[in-house]
Every structure is written in structure tokens, then in C-alpha cells.
């Protein structure tokens, strides 16, 4: 229940602030530039800052022997939901295309949430229980964290 209460609080706070335009930009990518297939060169090619990384998910080989490698976009070692990059290579290992969906400037969004670091776990749980009780229209004492 502790995690559920925290999730309720975070969801509520995210929903309340979703009316502001997000600072992060999300974009689909399609690049046909010739680059080497290394995580460092792909990150550089996409102009992502040093806080970003790509985590290998899987590699598939199609009937023409082209390889398609899917990466999860990471920001400070945390996966960015729904943001992936696919590197397409021909049978000789030459990258012929990079496609996917990425997010840039996540640090701008996170700076708006920096106050979370100053909250204790008990304060978060207490607030989440109060918000959940109000949302569900029940007495706050009826919700008990497990």
C-alpha cells in the first residue's frame, strides 16, 4: 500500500500540473545519415545531453539480413516511458537509418519537481492518503497503508 499511496499522490500532482505546457520536447526521429553503430555515436548524433543513455532491448534480423536494434531511452539511468530508438543496419553492418521517438530537455521538467527530494516518506504517504480519501470521498482514517 505504501507504493500505491505514493503513486496516488504523484499521479494527482502530475495531473494538477499537466495543465502547464511541459518543458520537455518529444519528437519522432528519422535519420538517414551515415554513422557508426555505437551508443555513444547515436547519442551524439541525436544531440542528447550527457544525462541520456540508450539501453539495448533486442536485435532482430529481417529476411534480407538487415539488422534492427531497439534501444530504450534512459535519463539518469531511468527508462523514459514510450521513448525508444531503432538503429537499422544493412547486411554489411552499415547504419542506414535511425528511427524512433525521443524526449529532450527532461531536466527542465524535473527542475519543477525538485521539492520531492525534501519530502520524507511519511509525509508523502500521509499526503497521498489524504488526497486518496478526498478523491474517493471516504474518511481519511479508513485508508490504511500496509
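Sequence proposed for the structure above (146 residues):
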Amino acid at each position: 500500500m505504501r507504493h500505491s499511496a505514493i503513486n496516488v499522490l504523484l499521479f494527482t500532482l502530475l495531473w494538477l500540473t499537466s495543465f502547464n505546457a511541459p518543458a520537455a520536447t518529444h519528437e519522432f526521429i528519422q535519420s538517414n545519415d551515415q554513422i557508426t553503430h555505437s551508443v555513444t555515436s547515436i547519442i551524439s548524433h541525436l544531440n542528447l545531453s550527457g544525462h541520456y543513455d540508450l539501453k539495448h532491448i533486442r536485435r532482430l534480423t529481417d529476411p534480407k539480413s538487415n539488422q534492427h536494434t531497439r534501444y530504450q531511452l534512459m535519463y539518469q539511468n531511468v527508462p523514459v516511458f514510450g521513448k525508444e530508438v531503432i538503429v537499422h543496419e544493412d547486411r554489411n553492418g552499415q547504419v542506414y537509418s535511425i528511427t524512433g521517438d525521443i524526449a529532450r530537455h527532461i531536466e527542465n521538467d524535473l527542475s519543477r519537481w525538485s521539492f520531492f527530494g525534501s519530502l520524507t516518506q511519511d509525509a508523502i504517504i500521509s499526503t497521498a492518503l489524504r488526497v486518496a480519501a478526498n478523491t474517493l470521498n471516504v474518511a481519511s482514517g479508513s485508508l490504511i497503508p500496509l
